[in-house]
Amino acid sequence: MLSAEQISFYREKGYLLVEDVVTAEQLERMRAITYEFIEASRQVSESDEVFDLDEGHSADRPRLTRIKLPHKQHPYFDEILKKSGVTEVLRDLLGESAALITSKLNTKAPGGGAAVEWHQDWAFYPHTNDDLLAFGLMLEDVELENGPLQVIPMSHKGPVLSHSVDGRFSGAVDADDPQFEGGRAVTLTGRAGSMTVHHARTLHGSAPNMSDKPRLILFYEIAKADAWPILGASSYIHSLGQRNFWEDLNDRMILGEPCLEPRLEPVPVRMPLPPPEDAGSIFKTQKYGGAKSAFTSPGVDG
Question: Helix (H) and strand (E) counts for the chain?
């Protein structure tokens, strides 16, 4: 699916934009399912196991930040991960064995849908090696005005920055940190059906959605099978116990089989501890953790 040039670009820059990853039929079905979930959220008044509600949400005006674990909420999102062009991009970048870490469907509502402050995914769930990445599949066109993903090229080769405020994990970097080079940010816009890819250590974030259109992006976060999570990271898997963990791991396999010989590499790690007051979603972690917003206007293009 990917050319040698695209793979080389990802390795060097830590991100990639791939167009037309899914078919028109696949895209339309995912979009229809997503809007069914948004419609169903009218019946919900508090965030729960499915919906993370944005400020101002109501039955008359549904506003979500996220549909949680979409691959568990509807089987089609799992099918897209395992049997589509998405799978082939994954195979090109991670090889023949890979496991899902988590999924989410970020649904930035029009007119100020919440920003995601600058962070590195790696800060939330460090592993024994850093062959981890995230896909962002655009279900609607993503333009400058509706809060596109922004990345800092080559930051995956640099340090893991502090994501803490007053000694507690807050899920965001300090925009005043001299090691944070926000002026080099690149903005990733694209047509529906396009997909962004970024390395787990790549610094990224997104501004609020100030347009009158929703920004729907389906995210899958994935690890090469020989990358094992470190105890103490922010993941539900640590509470499962050995037997349930094994069953869960098998359910999360996308390509190949589980690897029982983890690969350990000398990668930089900062543990996300002490834990945040609210780890229900990155939005809550950043909000209640006191993260200072780095976004003063939508669509910063480096």
Answer: 7, 14
* Separation of first and last alpha carbons in the chain: 28
* pLDDT confidence bin for 300, thresholds 50/70/90: very low
Please tell me the total number of residues recorded for the chain in this structure: 302
Model-level pTM?
A: 0.92
- The pLDDT, as a whole number, for residue 234 is 78
Residue 247's contacts (CB-CB under 8 Å, 6 or more residues apart) are none
List the domains of the chain with CATH numbers: 4-288 (2.60.120.620)
pLDDT digits (tens, 9 = 90+) for 155-184: 999 999 999 999 999 999 998 999 999 999
**Exposure letters 47-80 (e unless 16+ CB within 10 A, then b):** beebbbbbeebeeeebbbbbbbbbbebbeebbeb
Residues linked to residue 129 through DSSP beta bridges, in sequence order: none
